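sry for the spam today, last one i promise. C-alpha cells for design, 720 residues
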C-alpha cells in the first residue's frame, strides 16, 4: 500500500529529493565501512546479485547500519532520483557509481609490469572481455546508488528502492541495544539471484513456506515457455517475482527464475497444478514439465497453517532431495543446506544433476546417495564434520568422500581425473554404490578392503580391482556376477607383479628402462617416447605428473610433501609409507610442508635410473598416496623433487661448462633436432635478456674461462 501511495505522489525528481535525509556531518569521522559495502561499480554490481537491494550489519564497529543499493536504468532514471527513507534512519553516506571501462593506460608502461594482471581482473569482475570493447557487446547505461543508513536504537525505518524493475518497500526494526533486523517479507523471501538459488535448495519446487504456498522454478522464457497455474481451493496469488542476474553482458538464452506466492483466504484443501509450456501447447501437447501439489489450510492463532499432503507421504523426513530431472536446476556446484523443508538435514539424495562438479556437505549430514552426476569431480566437508573426511586419491584431482577416519569409501566422484587409484591403508570397506558411474576408472588397488557394498561398481566397465589374496574369495562372492559381466576383473595384488624396494635398487640402468616400458605397456598407458633420449628417462611420467624438469637437474636426496590439516610434528617415516629398509629421515617443517631426506647410500648417484627405481617402488608399493594418523588427521601429498637450479645449466646435468654453451648453440641452429626442456631453458637464459640466444652461450663461455662468475638468476645485463 505504501508503494502505491508513493508512486502516485511522485511527479518529478524534486518531489523525491525533499524526502532524503541529510548526510551526516563530517565533524565526527566514520570508521571504515565493512568490506561488503560497495566502494566501486563492480562491488555494487555484485552486491545486487548477492544480497538484492539491502544488507544489515550489527558488528561492534558498525551496529545497526543498513546499506541500500539501487540499480538505475534509463527507463527509470528520470522518475526516481534517490532512495526514499522514512522513520528513524540517519543517512551516513551516499555514493553513485557509473560504469567506466577499466583503465588500460598503463598496460604498455614498463614502470608497471603487472598492470595487465589488474586490468584483466577488472574485466573478469565485470563480466567483460576485450573483444566487447570493439563490438559493443556490453551495456554502459547502468549505474548504482549506494546509501548507508544507521537506524536509531529502539526505532524503525522504511526504505523504498528499485529492485530489478519493481519498486520495493523494505522495513527494519532496531532493538534497544542497537541491533537492526529486517522485518518485511524479504527477510525470508529472496530478492536476488543468490538468495533465489539458496531458497530453491531449501524447499521443494512446490511447497508450504512461511505461511504461503510457494512455487520456485526455472523455466525457458527465451524459448517462449511460460508457467501456467491452476488452483482449486481458498488461495489467491499474492506475489510473482522473476529473478535475473545483473551484468553488463546482454544475456541470450538461459533460464528465467521465478517464485510465485499464494496466500490462504480461508480453511480447506487446495490443489495446485503448475505446468511449463508454450501457449499453443495447451490442450494439444504434453507440457515440458508439471509440478502438482496438494495442501490443507487450517486456522491457527488468528492466522492460517498450511500442511503439505503429498511431500512427506512420498519422501523421508530429515532428507535433502535434489533431482535434476524434476526441476533440480543447473547447479555447477551444490552446497547441501542444513535444513530442507524446515527440517534439519541428516541425509542427502542427489540425482540427475548433469552439470554439478562439486558437492559440499554441512556437518549435520551423516548419509549421502549420489546418482546420475557425470561431471562430479570433488567433495568438500569441514574439518569438524563428525561423519565424513575427504581424501585426494590423485595429486591432480579432487577429493573423494570417506567416512570419518577413512575406514569406508562412501563416494568416488565419477569425473575424477585419474584412471588408476589406490585406496588408503585405513580403508576396509567400499560402500554401497561408492564407484557408481565411474566409467573412466581402469584400476583400483584396495589392499586392506574386506567388504564391498551393493552396486559399488555399478556403471564401471573394464576395471581391474586388486585386493589381497586373503580377501579375494569373500570379495568375489560379494561382488556378484554383474561385476564380471561388465568386463571387470577381480585380481590379487600378487598378480599385479608388485616388486619390493630392493628389487628395483638392484636393477641396472638398462633394466630400469625396460621395466618402465613394460610397466607402461601392461597398464595401457602411452609410452611417451619423447621423454626418452639417449637411454635416459627425462620426466617423472610413471605417475603422469608431467614435470618438465630433466632428471639430471634433480637432487635425489630430497622430496617435498604437503601436510594437510597438520597438527602434530611427531611424525616418523612410517607415516609416509616408506618401507622399513628405506633409510629416510624427516629433515624440516615449514608452513605445512615437509622435507624428507633420503640417507640411503644407494642414492649417492644422481642418475635418472636411481630416481626411476624409487618412483617405481613408491608407486608399486602403494605408498605413493596420502596417510593419516588417528585424531591428528595428518595427510600428505607428493609434490615435486627439489631441483638444483644453476644459471647456465642448459643441458640439465647439474653443472655449468662448455657443454651447456654447445647445447644452446645447437638449439639455436637446429631447434627441432636439439630441443631444450622448459626448465633447462629457464636456466639457459642467463644473460639478462629475455629468451635464449647466442649471447647466453657467450656468457657461459666467459664464466667457464673464469672471466665472470654466474650468480643469481640474471648475472649479467650484457656479456662483455
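last one done:
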Amino acid at each position: 500500500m505504501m508503494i502505491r501511495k508513493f508512486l502516485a505522489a511522485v511527479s518529478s525528481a524534486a518531489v523525491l529529493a525533499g524526502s532524503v535525509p541529510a548526510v551526516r556531518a563530517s565533524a565526527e569521522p566514520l570508521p571504515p565501512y565493512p568490506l561488503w559495502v560497495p566502494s566501486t561499480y563492480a562491488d555494487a554490481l555484485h552486491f545486487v546479485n548477492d544480497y538484492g537491494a539491502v544488507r544489515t550489519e550489527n558488528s561492534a564497529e558498525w551496529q545497526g547500519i543498513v546499506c541500500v543499493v539501487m540499480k538505475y536504468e534509463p527507463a527509470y532514471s528520470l522518475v526516481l532520483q534517490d532512495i526514499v527513507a522514512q522513520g528513524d534512519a540517519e543517512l551516513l553516506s551516499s555514493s553513485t557509481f557509473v560504469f567506466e571501462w577499466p583503465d588500460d593506460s598503463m598496460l604498455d608502461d614498463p614502470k608497471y609490469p603487472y598492470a595487465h594482471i589488474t586490468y584483466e581482473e577488472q574485466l573478469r569482475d565485470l563480466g567483460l572481455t576485450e573483444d566487447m570493447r570493439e563490438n559493443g557487446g556490453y551495456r554502459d547505461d547502468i549505474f548504482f546508488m549506494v546509501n548507508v543508513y544507521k537506524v536509531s536504537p529502539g526505532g524503525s525505518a522504511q526504505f523504498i528502492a528499485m529492485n530489478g524493475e519493481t519498486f520495493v518497500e523494505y522495513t527494519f526494526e532496531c532493538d534497544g541495544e542497537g541491533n537492526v533486523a529486517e522485518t518485511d517479507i524479504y527477510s525470508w523471501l529472496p530478492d536476488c539471484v543468490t538468495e533465489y538459488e539458496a531458497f530453491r535448495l531449501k524447499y521443494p519446487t512446490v511447497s508450504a513456506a512461511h505461511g504461503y504456498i510457494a512455487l520456485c522454478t526455472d523455466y525457458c522464457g527465451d524459448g517462449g515457455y511460460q508457467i501456467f497455474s491452476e488452483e482449486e481451493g481458498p488461495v489467491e496469488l499474492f506475489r510473482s517475482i522473476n529473478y535475473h542476474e545483473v551484468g553488463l553482458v546482454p544475456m541470450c538464452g538461459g533460464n528465467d527464475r521465478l517464485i510465485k506466492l499464494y496466500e490462504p483466504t480461508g480453511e480447506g484443501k487446495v490443489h495446485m497444478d503448475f505446468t511449463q509450456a508454450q501457449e499453443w501447447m495447451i490442450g494439444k501437447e504434453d507440457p515440458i514439465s508439471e509440478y502438482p501439489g496438494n495442501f490443507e489450510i487450517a486456522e491457527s492463532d488468528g492466522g492460517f497453517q498450511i500442511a503439505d499432503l503429498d511431500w512427506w507421504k512420498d519422501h523421508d523426513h530429515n532428507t535433502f532431495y535434489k533431482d535434476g530431472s524434476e526441476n533440480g536446476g543447473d547447479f555447477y556446484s551444490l552446497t547441501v543446506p542444513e535444513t530442507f523443508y524446515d527440517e534439519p538435514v541428516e541425509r542427502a539424495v542427489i540425482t540427475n544433476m548433469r552439470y554439478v562438479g562439486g558437492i559440499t556437505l554441512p556437518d549435520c549430514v551423516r548419509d549421502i546417495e549420489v546418482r546420475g552426476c557425470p561431471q562430479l569431480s570433488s567433495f568438500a566437508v569441514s574439518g569438524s564434520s563428525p561423519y565424513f573426511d575427504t581424501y585426494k586419491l590423485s595429486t591432480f584431482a579432487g577429493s573423494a568422500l570417506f567416512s570419518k577416519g577413512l575406514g569406508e569409501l562412501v563416494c568416488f566422484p565419477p569425473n575424477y581425473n585419474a584412471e588408476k587409484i589406490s585406496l588408503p591403508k585405513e580403508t576396509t570397506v567400499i560402500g554401497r554404490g561408492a564407484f557408481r558411474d565411474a566409467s573412466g576408472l581402469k584400476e583400483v588397488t584396495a589392499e586392506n578392503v574386506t567388504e564391498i557394498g551393493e552396486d559399488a561398481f555399478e556403471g564401471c566397465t573394464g576395471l581391474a580391482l586388486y585386493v589381497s589374496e586373503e580377501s579375494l574369495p569373500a570379495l568375489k562372492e560379494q561382488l556378484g556376477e554383474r561385476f564380471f559381466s561388465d568386463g571387470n576383473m577381480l585380481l590379487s595384488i600378487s598378480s599385479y607383479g608388485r616388486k619390493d624396494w630392493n628389487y628395483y635398487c638392484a636393477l641396472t640402468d638398462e633394466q630400469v628402462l625396460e621395466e618402465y616400458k613394460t610397466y607402461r605397456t601392461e597398464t595401457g598407458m602411452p609410452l611417451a617416447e619423447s621423454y626418452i633420449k639417449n637411454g635416459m628417462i627425462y620426466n617423472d611420467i610413471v605417475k603422469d605428473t608431467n614435470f618438465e624438469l630433466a632428471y639430471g637437474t634433480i637432487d635425489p636426496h630430497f622430496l617435498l610433501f604437503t601436510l594437510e590439516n597438520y597438527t602434530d610434528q611427531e611424525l616418523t617415516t612410517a607415516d609416509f609409507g616408506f618401507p622399513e629398509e628405506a633409510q629416510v629421515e624427516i629433515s624440516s617443517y615449514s608452513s605445512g610442508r615437509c622435507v624428507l631426506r633420503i640417507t640411503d647410500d644407494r642414492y649417492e648417484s644422481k642418475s635418472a635410473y636411481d630416481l626411476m627405481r624409487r618412483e617405481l617402488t613408491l608407486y608399486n608399493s602403494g605408498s605413493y598416496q596420502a596417510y593419516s594418523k588417528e585424531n591428528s588427521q595428518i595427510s600428505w601429498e607428493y609434490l615435486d623433487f627439489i631441483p638444483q637450479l644453476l644459471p647456465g645449466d642448459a643441458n640439465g646435468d647439474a653443472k655449468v661448462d662448455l657443454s651447456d654453451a654447445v647445447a644452446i648453440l645447437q638449439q639455436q641452429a637446429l631447434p627441432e633436432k636439439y630441443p631444450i626442456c622448459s626448465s633447462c631453458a629457464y636456466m639457459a637464459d642467463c644473460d639478462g635478456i629475455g629468451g635464449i640466444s647466442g649471447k647466453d652461450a657467450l656468457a657461459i663461455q666467459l664464466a667457464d674461462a673464469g672471466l665472470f662468475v654466474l650468480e643469481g638468476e640474471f648475472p649479467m645485463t650484457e656479456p662483455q
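DSSP finds 16 helices and 39 strands in the chain. ok im logging off now
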